[in-house]
Amino acid sequence: MTNCRYERILSIIVFSLFFSWLLAFPFQGQVLYALAHQYGIDPSALVFQSTAAHFLGLCACGFFIRTLKTAKRLMVSSTVFCMAGSLLFYFPPSIIWNASLVAMSFIVGTCVAAWGFFLKSFTPSNERIKTAADALIYSNALMILINMLAVNLSPGAGLALSILMLALAMFFAVKLPGEVPKTIQTAPTSATKPESLAKPMLFLCLFIMIITINSGLMYQVINPAFMHHQWLVSWYWAVPYIAALFIMKNLPSKLSRSYILYVAIAMIGFSFISFMVTDRSAISYLLVNTLMMGAFGVYDLFWWSILGEMMDFDDNPSRILGIGLSANVLGVLLGGVVGDAVNAAGTQNNNSSLLALAVVFIILILLPLLHKRLSMLLTNHAFLTVFSGMSSTLQKEAVESFTLIGNLSQRESEIAALLLKGRTYKMIAAELFLSENTIKTHIKNIYAKLNVQSKAELVSLLVKRENAFKI
Description:
CATH superfamily of the largest domain: MFS general substrate transporter like domains
CATH topology of the largest domain: Growth Hormone, Chain: A
Distance between the termini: 31 Å
CATH class of the largest domain: Mainly Alpha
Shape: globular
């Protein structure tokens, strides 16, 4: 796929505007909390209902949004619907609040998943990590502006700015293309069978859900503990998150990001330990929030970019993005439930921190297994890269070593190199002007000569060669 800069930027703008409204209002946003406090009502039920509806919307999108054209229609109509629903919150609380919040949260869930069509269609696979980073950075920056108005000026002012974001999203969504322009060459979807994608996807969703439990704990336990620093919390909350995204986006391509995932795990652990042993001063908040949100920035970009590349293995990218992000929301839901239970017990500091550290321990166990599962599928992903992270000289040496130990032919060496770069069978066939069946035969012979059974074992063999070259 060649990069189509205009459509790519346009899709980022639409997503950022729409997502900023979601983060600031229905999805546990400060606008919703401020409105509830203004009328003296408990926001817990509203927050749970909206989060659950958002989860359902993410899961449901893939069943009825199956083309770029219907994805565009959904995004345009949804902005109008959500603007109308948001206006209802200028009236006193009633059952209409609940109904509107549930309906809006469901429909915006489908929109977030449907954005997968634009991410896949207008951003090359190896650039999706940057597009995801840009969309998350801009949406969170806009969310900070809305939060500051809602918390420091009035809930109504914050709500008004969030509705303005929806209006702008609608304006730009109308300009989104309803089909992929002929000037954009789309790479064929991999011929990989669905069951080969199912296991890595299931493992990824489990990982996302478990680590995001800490997000739910943060919403229900940590954030309320520092709400007396109203001005500071209103703007600093997402700053470390944005900073982490910016740093990760601009890291040198040769730098292994997989090690940073372990650093982020440590940051989460230290954040909860700090919450347990420090006071509730502004300095403590800066320490706890910086560690926590910086780690969440790393992990959010990790799974957003993984899901972005997984789209190449499915004709319906909204299904991939929706299911993956629904695991995120489910983790928030579970963490919120646990956080409420911890609050009810009256020992928030120790119980929540011990639970979070248990989650961190589980993540440490799961991460190597997840890395192995995903490496089988996405050899050239920024977080998983082995071969593509090597210099061209070392790539050549590694393949030559395969050629020697396996007595590979020149054609088999070419195919092995392309396979290690993450090319699918169809891509290799197109690049070498051979049939896909011929490529499969060559790869079968390569596996036999190198005494491996799968691409995963081939990558494992490469890692051993990589260590031999002291990379």
